[in-house]
Amino acid sequence: MTQLGPLERTDPAVRVSADAVVVIPGIMGSRLVEAATGRVLWGLGRAAQLAARWRHREGLAALAVTPQERDGRVGRVVPAGLLDTAEFAPVLRGIEPYGRLVRRLREVLVHPDALLEFGYDWRLSVEYNAEQLAAELRAHLAAWRAHPARPPGVEPRVVLVAHSMGGLVATAMCARHPDLAAEVRATVTLGTPFLGAVKAAALLNSGHGTPLEHRNLLALARTLPGVHDLLPAYRCVVTADEDVVELGAAEAAALGADPELFERTRRTRALLDPSVLPNHRAVVGAGQPTEQALRIEAGVVRTYHHGHLRHPDDELVRDAIGRLVPVDHTGDGTVFRYSATPHDGVDEICLGQTHGALAKSSTALDVVCGVVTRLPARSALGGELPEDTVGLRLPDLVTAGEPFTVAVDGVRDAGAASCLVEDAHVDGAPVARPLLARGDRPDVLVASVVLDEPGLYRVAVSGGADPVTELVLVQE
């Protein structure tokens, strides 16, 4: 650890913490490099290479987990810190960098060395990465407690800040290492899929007529233990006789999961009781169209943007002729709302935001920094979705020079919403300001957008507390 002098805080209005803080990113949220050559495999930051990589399977070959890596002989690929540039994967859409979160946290710590940015090999299992986190956290906490900038008379503890799959890694670490869990003062999870995500099942199943980019992602995903650890673990599979069951071995095999990796995942689930997370506050994304259930027909997965209504005893509600009753719980576009809220005792903060943006939106960062600095929970934030929440829908892949549609749900006042398109690799550089107009439904606004240059773009719609954002890849 770099030994720097104490950082003096002269502004009494700035509330800072002496604790050690750990940022744990989500799947695809760490840069990966090839150990032997230093070649960057993930986190390229060059828009031209993003589309080309997904069109050619050989462009993804180095990211695939090998039989040797599955057996524990790792080190061919190594993490190189948190993602510092926007990335893209079909189906999962864009992956936002963590720079804004890191900068905000540094502002509320007594010294930058109190912060650990835990990059990890997200291709590998949650269980493996939990052990890596434990080792790095032990070393980090010991170094920070011995640091000259640590305030005298203060015994620092730990605050875990975890996005997406990072929350599963944190949960497994606390379960396997109760002595480390005892050092944790508080935990904040941002869109963590404690019950998995239907979208992970879609990653493992191409269906018919899907684009080449999606099929190449499928071939990669089927080798990754990390993707299998995200498969849904709640009743979401609609059967031929109209029951709803959990994803079992037979269903997993039918959709294309690796049988051995699926069995490993089921064993890991025993470690993932989120109640082990100390003083847990869950930031949950909602209001966005989110896959919540699925049906497997002839080996093809069909997903639904709704779940099914249940009685208080968890029995399914049926209508007068015995049909299931759909209910849309929404989510963050990747994780449905109640998967990110693990149990009744957790302090839930619900935001109208997309999955990737949860780790960078102003309101979410206010929550994180409030936990770090021991501010009381803000009464304005809670489990209810804000009334001004808007939902954002757009394709993940589009072609340069061809129009595509941006749709915004839940807008009461058309004049209160606006749309901005910016270059995701040049932060804040506006490219277009599409005009939103009423669509076929009174609560939907639409805009036709044409982007002439290939690249990765961020679409932002203002109409609520924070702009709701999503990434789109424009290819030639």
From TrEMBL:
Pfam families: LCAT. Gene3D superfamilies: alpha/beta hydrolase. It comes from the Bacteria. GO terms for molecular function: O-acyltransferase activity. One of its GO terms (biological process) is lipid metabolic process. InterPro entries: AB_hydrolase_fold, LACT/PDAT_acylTrfase. PANTHER family: LECITHIN-CHOLESTEROL ACYLTRANSFERASE-RELATED (PTHR11440). This is Lecithin:cholesterol acyltransferase.
